[in-house]
Fold each of these.
Amino acid sequence: MEAYTKSLSRIKVSMVYSVYASWSTWKPQTAVKEMYRILKPNGKLILIVPTECGFRRDKTHIKFWDKDNTKELPEKFNFKIESMKYFPFSFKFLRERIFFNKLRVIAIKIVKK
């Protein structure tokens, strides 16, 4: 789904699961903002992003998002990061050499008061 072109005006969900999609758009900020809007209070956002090796291998990825960028974007839209883990390998040596390694981010929607 292209979050910046689709309207989900009436939908409210408990979880959004995004595998590479948000980071393969020209407007990831718009995508995360839409994810926040459709999530119910305390809903979960799960983002899967490629590590640098996987990013370089796939020409459809627009911009590489390192761990810091990947953390900052959801936080900008009032998500609280619950966990960030590399999988299946957490060792930097392997992350840099194995293209199918990923970073998983789990965030919780924080409701503005």
Amino acid sequence: MTTQTWPFELEIRHAGFRGTIDPARVTVPAGIVATYQVGFADVDPGFVDPITLAVLNLPAGAVATFDVNPCQVTDTVTLTIETLGLAVGLYGLEIEATY
């Protein structure tokens, strides 16, 4: 009788999701509010943790506001960015989700 063994792996990870934003780019004149919809996709089964959102790389003078924060993966969140006082240009921003 011969016995064989072979390796395999099991990885346990935090439940999660993929964040979405629509539109990915907004063009507005200085002083006008830019509006985005933030959502969640590819949500792992059983994920129920509250999510706190923040905007990273926000230029000085801009104000970002989420209409629901903290939120749940079942929420669609409106993000508004007040642009009063910003210089003309393209700003690369990121959304940070903490849970």
